[in-house]
Write a sequence for this structure.
């Protein structure tokens, strides 16, 4: 497979279980060596041997925060990455403060991460990545295991943090809402383009073992009933609600 | 799932202020002295020092007793041995020596956050592979307990319970074996993921922290107290005093 992610893009990589989404993310984060081919960042080849240079560029949020949170307190965990990057103490303090504010973790600084709820752990994990100030954020199923409110909160946090973001998920609703470009993966790239275009193609989606997003299904029904125009293409329930309200 | 906080009593103890390196050195010297101080008066002094430390540490008595109970089978076994080769008085004093040693170790462990203990070990050049293993064990023990608990629930939910069976029962033995095998696989998978996530945040094999270890007045006071105590115990043992 071959594809490029441009600066400032929001790309969702979707595919069924076992499609290779997480492996692809590990390759992109220079945590795994590709058996063939190359991964390039800013035109430079990267690999697990690239060292700390690549860590400034790429941050990865893992699916299970328990895999990611390591230190005995929230504050120390957020400082873990910048400390490994040998940044000076003032800079680390500044980054911790910023990450705590961005993730709404004020008051959690001295708490032990392994005693937090899953939603709180996710926020700690995000703060840990943010403190490294990566130019590109790779997100592996960031909302898995969260209740609807927790999911919304996490996506709100992520919405305001990254310049370039690559999301890996099999949550088609999330992919449609989040991305401006979607890649459908099933061991190889079988679609690369607009999320609306992908999710409106029911046969392609089904052939990849996925289902259409709820909002796409509702829009189809509303169009059949004549309640929406053929050009109306909302990406989320909120957009659909706004569209219907304005009619 | 809720778990016990290993560092629960560390934060409220006055002994937390003492540098973990000072405490570790004092503990090791105390244990060595306890191994050699067989004199009865010296043994009583050992007991007294450990009780003073326990009182200063402000650790709840219940917590101390619960931890001492773990050492009880060992104390009983050694005391029985002493009883066989000696008499009841020897057995009692042997028990006091072991209890004092365990109590001092419990105080060290309870008043020093695990991460600080590991940093002290790192300072004394304990191989990274050992300190890393301790660190990972500390961090992931609850995660593994959760995994084991989930596996147990899955087993029970499918009507598999081991009530009425013994370890010698083939069914129970097989189930335990399968559970351990499955746990090993899951732990191995998690270890890979943890390794990737650590690498992603710049980890190169040594856990670094921003907290600076530093000696202060509390360390000097503690070192003086322990030195005087050990000096008195050794003087008694060597017959210099009493």
């Amino acid at each position: 497979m071959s594809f490029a992610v441009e600066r400032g893009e929001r790309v969702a990589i979707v595919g069924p279980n076992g499609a290779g989404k997480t492996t692809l993310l590990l390759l992109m984060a220079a945590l795994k060596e590709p058996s063939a081919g190359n991964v390039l960042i800013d035109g430079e080849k990267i690999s697990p041997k690239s060292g700390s240079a690549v860590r400034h560029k790429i941050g990865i949020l893992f699916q299970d925060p328990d895999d990611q949170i390591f230190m005995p307190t929230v504050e120390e965990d957020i400082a873990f990455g910048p400390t490994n990057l040998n940044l000076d103490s003032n800079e680390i303090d500044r980054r911790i403060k910023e990450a705590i504010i961005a993730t709404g973790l004020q008051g959690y600084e001295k708490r032990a991460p392994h005693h937090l709820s899953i939603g709180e752990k996710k926020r700690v994990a995000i703060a840990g990545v943010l403190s490294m100030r990566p130019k590109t954020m790779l997100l592996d199923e960031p909302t898995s295991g969260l209740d609807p409110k927790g999911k919304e909160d996490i996506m709100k946090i992520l919405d305001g943090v990254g310049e370039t973001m690559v999301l890996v998920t099999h949550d088609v609703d999330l992919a449609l809402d989040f991305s401006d470009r979607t890649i459908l993966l099933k061991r190889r790239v079988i679609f690369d383009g607009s999320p609306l275009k992908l999710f409106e193609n029911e046969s392609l989606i089904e052939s990849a073992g996925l289902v259409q997003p709820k909002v796409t299904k509702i829009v189809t029904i509303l169009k059949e009933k004549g309640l929406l125009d053929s050009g109306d293409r909302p990406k989320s329930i909120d957009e659909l609600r706004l569209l219907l309200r304005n009619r | 799932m809720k778990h016990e906080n290993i560092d629960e009593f560390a934060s409220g103890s006055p002994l937390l202020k003492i540098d973990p390196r000072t405490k570790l050195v004092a503990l090791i010297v105390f244990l060595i002295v306890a191994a050699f101080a067989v004199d009865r008066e010296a043994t009583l002094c050992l007991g007294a020092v450990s009780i003073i430390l326990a009182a200063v540490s402000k650790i709840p008595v219940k917590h101390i007793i619960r931890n001492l109970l773990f050492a009880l089978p060992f104390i009983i076994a050694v005391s029985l041995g002493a009883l066989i080769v000696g008499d009841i008085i020897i057995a009692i004093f042997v028990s006091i020596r072991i209890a004092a040693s365990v109590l001092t170790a419990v105080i060290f462990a309870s008043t020093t956050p695990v991460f600080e203990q590991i940093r002290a070990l790192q300072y004394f050049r304990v191989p990274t592979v050992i300190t890393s293993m301790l660190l990972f064990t500390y961090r992931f023990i609850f995660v593994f307990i959760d995994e084991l608990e989930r596996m147990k629930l899955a087993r029970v939910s499918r009507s598999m319970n081991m009530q009425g069976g013994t370890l010698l029962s083939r069914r129970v033995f097989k189930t335990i074996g399968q559970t351990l095998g499955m746990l090993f696989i899951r732990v191995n998978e998690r270890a890979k993921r943890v390794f990737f996530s650590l690498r992603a945040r710049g980890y190169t094999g040594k856990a670094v922290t921003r907290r600076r270890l530093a000696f202060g007045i509390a360390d000097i006071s503690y070192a003086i107290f322990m030195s005087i105590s050990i000096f008195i115990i050794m003087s008694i043992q060597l017959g210099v005093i009493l």
Q: What stands out?
A: Chain A is about 45% helix and 15% strand. The two ends of chain A are 43 Å apart (CA to CA). Chain A touches chain B at residues 26, 29, 31-32, 48, 52, 55, 58-60, 62, 64, 66-68, 70-72, 76, 79-81, 83-85, 89, 92, 112, 114-115, 128-129, 132 (CB under 8 Å).
